[in-house]
Structure formats: structure tokens, C-alpha cells
Amino acid sequence: MKIKRRNFLKLAGLAGFGVAGGGISKGFVSGHSDTGGTGLPKLIKEYGQSHIQHFNMSGYAAPKINNVRVGIIGLGQRGPSHMHTMSLIEGVEIKALCDIIPEKAKAAKKKMKGTGHNPVLYAGSKDEWKKLCERNDIDLVIITTPWYMHTEMAVYAMEHGKHVASEVPAAGTIEECWQLVETCERTLKHCMMMENYAYMEFQLLTLNMARQGFFGEVVHGDCAYNTSKMRNNFSKKMYWDMWWLKQYARRKGNIYPTHGLGPVCQIMDINRGDRLDYLVSVESNDFMMAEKARKLAAQDNFFKPFIGKDFRGNMNVTTIRTKKGRTIMLQHDATSPSPHNLIHGIYGTKGAALYDPQPPKLSVGNHKWVSQEEFNSLKEKYTPEIIGKIGEMAKGSGHGGSDLLLDWRLIDCLRNGLPLEQDVYDAASWSSIVSLSEWSVHNRSDSIDIPDFTAGAWKTNKRNMDINLERGGNTKVII
Ligand SMILES: NC(=O)c1ccc[n+]([C@@H]2O[C@H](COP(=O)([O-])OP(=O)(O)OC[C@H]3O[C@@H](n4cnc5c(N)ncnc54)[C@H](O)[C@@H]3O)[C@@H](O)[C@H]2O)c1
Question: Which of the four pLDDT bands, split at 50, 70 and 90, describes residue 37?
């Protein structure tokens, strides 16, 4: 660790703020990245030149932890969902829970009654989560607060000797992406972003097919998170402090990229043989949110602060090129009343797959989708071990069973001392799209480089998503 740390802090504009003390940069507070003309491209270049990899976290295995002691920060929708799932997994002890709102913390603890878990509560002020991170009887901190808070919490937890599993995205600015990488490499604590869509059945199936050569060379991926959140985002009860609506009212670009992008990156071996190189991003105007805010505000003063805001456009389309010359088309639309759509289209030299619109389809490269019968037999042939092992049990859990699969495999890897299935470089590169796409939208869709968070190690890093459970897989689920 020769640097370079000082350079990093200087470049990140953090010197004097004390990262270890949980200090925060201006960019973090606003959740805003640098959208100016040359500012961000220059910063990306400088980060790239000054960063030396302290330790390659790709493939890193921490010492085994037989009983994984867990603390959870943020108990809105997502926190209690992970809490419940984690409580079903062998070798998990839920030690502590934290939410700024005491009622949320108490309600979550109540749900633990009769499960054998007796978590200590931290609540009532915005910094209580630090006390949870400072405890010396916690191994893993799960972060389920609004995403612009994730990096500060993750960095603090790692600095206090904890592994981290953060909800998506893990970071909202390029500075934050580098903070995650730098802290993870220095502390040797895992920093995983919990991209659960990587564990959806069709996504796992197509990952296995790609690895077995079904698609030939994968040339292109289409992906998206297109689902209307108009009702949720304008609801006064749904999210803490209207945080999602505030993000849509202040930012541009794809502010929720990882559900679509993560599984495609895994299929393309991004950060392990290939890497994201550059992107361009185009965005429609907003045709719905400002109008809805105006109408609501006419009857309810609560919505007045949202009047006249320059809302993010309805549709953002980001196109990414990889170093090996593959392409990815990534969309995000949280407004239009069209059906939920992840797309997940994989196009190769020999075959293709398409998840949405449903039903899922496969092609063997003869310009047609295969019949249902052939689909079933291909599915049987290529279904990876992880689905056979735990997929049936997972079916009852959220997001098509992916929530249980992800949490189970995370704990299984920690208990067996195995590398985690998504590492800090995945967290940083997938999350970096938030601010890079925003910059491109602000700059007439100019292209912008995607940082190499692996510092060149992508050329030799090995695959890490062990979907056929060659190691581990022995942790039980209590259902
Ligand atoms: N992977 C998925 O499928 C999925 C689904 C939904 C949401 N998410 C992600 O999960 C995260 C949480 O989303 P949500 O829907 O649960 O939001 P939410 O608003 O329902 O919950 C956030 C919680 O954080 C708490 N909080 C706010 N500030 C805090 C602080 N300083 N200390 C402690 N607690 C604090 C709030 O009181 C609230 O209970 C987001 O990052 C979101 O992007 C992921």
C-alpha cells in the first residue's frame, strides 16, 4: 500500500474529511456526481493513473466463519426481507438491527420473535448505524438503506473489520466506487453488492449456457429495469423521506442499472477476461413525473417542493462497449405503464436467449425461437446445479426465488471460506453506470470511459460465480 492512499484521497477530494472516521465528501451528501463538461473524464483519468491495486480482491477468500453474526442497517422494505431470509439459513445469527426510525427497528425485531434470534436495536438518530458497525461481535453488515448512503456505511463497516453486503447500487458517484475498491483492498474485507437478479432462474440458466458454449461467442446483451414505480415513488408511505422521488427529481441517467446489467456482465465475464470500456447514454424527456407532481401539489402542499423540478427522463438508454468489442444495451424506465421488462436478451454467434417479454425463449441460431418442447429439454440439459440444489426451496422467496439463493450462497461462501460470487470490482463497475450515464446525458450523449477498477487484473482474473457448486453448497436452509 505505497500510495497512493494519499493521492487517492486528494483526487477524491476527501483529504481532511477522514474516510476512516466515516467522513463524507460533498458529492456523497448530495448523491450527485460531477456532471460538468470535462470534470468527470479528467477525474476518471487521474484515478486510473494514481490507483495501484493494493491486493487483488478477485478470487479472495476470507478465513471461514462457522457462525456468521449479522447486523442489518435500514429496515424499510428490503432490510426486513433480508432479515427474514437470513433467519432461515443455517449458521446465521442476527445480532443487531438499525433504523433511523425507532418504530421500524421495533417492528423488525418483533418479526424475529420465536426464531431464536434476539437482535440489539439501534435507532433514533442518523448516526446510530456507526455503533452497529463498531460492535466487535458482528462479522457481516448488510446495508439496506437508500442507495446514496451505501458507500459511506460500507466503508465505515470495512474500516471496523466487517464484511459488507450492500443493496443495489453500491455507489452513486465515481468517487464512491473508488472508495469501495480502495477500502476493500486495504482492509481485506469482502464488499459484495447483493445483485439478486443474477440468481434468477433464467439468468442462471443462460449463464450456464454461455459457459458451455451454447451461444458461441456472445456478441451483444440487451438488458433493462423497466417497471412502473409511479405509484410507489409518489406514495407518502412507501419509502423513507420520499427518497426515490427526490433522486428522480434531481438526477439524470440510469440511476438503477444493476438488475439488468449484472447478469449480462457475468455472461460476458466482465472483470474476468473482458471489461466495460466506454458508454454513451441517451435520455428522453420526462413526460409524466413533473406533471403528476404539479397535479398532486394543487391539492396537497406536501408535493409543492417537487413543482418545477427537472425530473429524470422517462426512458434512459445506455449503450456500452467492452474491451473485447462486445456491446450491451441497457435501459431504465420507472414510469411508463408498460409491463415489467428486464429484457435479458443474449445474442451470440451460434444461439440466442430472450427473457422478456414473457415467455422466455431460446434460439439455436436458425432465425427462429425453439418450440416449447425443445425449450424444456434445453432447460433440463443446461440448468446449473445451484438451481437443482436449492431452487425449489427458493421459489417461495422474493424476486423469483433469487433473494433466498443470493443470501444462502453468500452465507455458504463465508462459512466455507470461499470467494464471494460478486466482488468489489463488480460492485464498482456495475454501479459506476449511475454517474457515467448521467454525465453522458448532460453532455449530449458524448461517450465516456468506464474506469478499470481492477487495475488491469481483469485480463487474468478467474471466473467466480460457481453455479455448479463445485465447492461448498453444504449450508442448510431451515424451512
Ligand atoms: N435487490 C432488490 O431487488 C431491491 C429491491 C428494492 C430495493 N432495493 C434497494 O434496497 C435499498 C433499500 O430500499 P427500500 O425499498 O428498502 O427503501 P425504504 O425507504 O423502504 O427503506 C430504507 C430504510 O432506511 C432507513 N434509513 C434512512 N436513513 C437511515 C440512517 N441514517 N440510518 C439507518 N436507517 C436509515 C429508513 O428509515 C428506511 O426504513 C435501496 O438501495 C434500493 O435500491 C433493492
Answer: confident
* The predicted structure's pLDDT at residue 427: 98
pLDDT (tens digit, 9 = 90+) per residue, 407-428? 999 999 999 999 999 999 999 9
The best mutation among 29, 78, 192, 342 to test binding of ligand 1, ranked by most ligand atoms within 8 Å of the C-beta, falls on 78
316 pLDDT band, cuts 50/70/90, is: very high
Are 410 and 194 in contact, with CB atoms under 8 Å apart?
yes
If you write DSSP's letter for every residue of 95-151 in order, what string do you get? EEEEESSHHHHHHHHHHTTTTT--PEEEESSTTHHHHHHH-SS-SEEEE-S-GGGHH
Q: Nearest C-alpha to atom 5 of ligand 1 is from which residue?
A: 78
* The model scores a pTM over 0.85: yes
The CATH number of whichever domain residue 343 belongs to comes to 3.30.360.10
Model pLDDT for residues 195-224, shown as the tens digit of each residue: 999 999 999 999 999 999 999 999 999 999
When pLDDT is cut at 50, 70 and 90, the band that residue 299 belongs to is very high
Q: Is residue 261 part of a domain?
A: yes
Q: Please indicate, yes or no, if residue 298 is contained in any of the structural domains.
A: yes
Cα distance between residue 249 and residue 241, in whole Å: 13
What whole-number distance in Å separates Cα of residue 127 and Cα of residue 153? 10
Number of domains comprising the chain: 1
Most informative mutation of 122, 144, 200, 241 for ligand 1 (most atoms within 8 A of CB): 144
Partners of 97 in the beta sheet?
A: 72, 121
Amino acid making up residue 79: G
Residue 458 CA to residue 464 CA, distance in Å, equals 12
- Domain-embedded: residue 376: yes
In which order are the strands placed within the sheet that holds 191-193? 120-123, 92-99, 68-73, 140-143, 163-166, 191-193
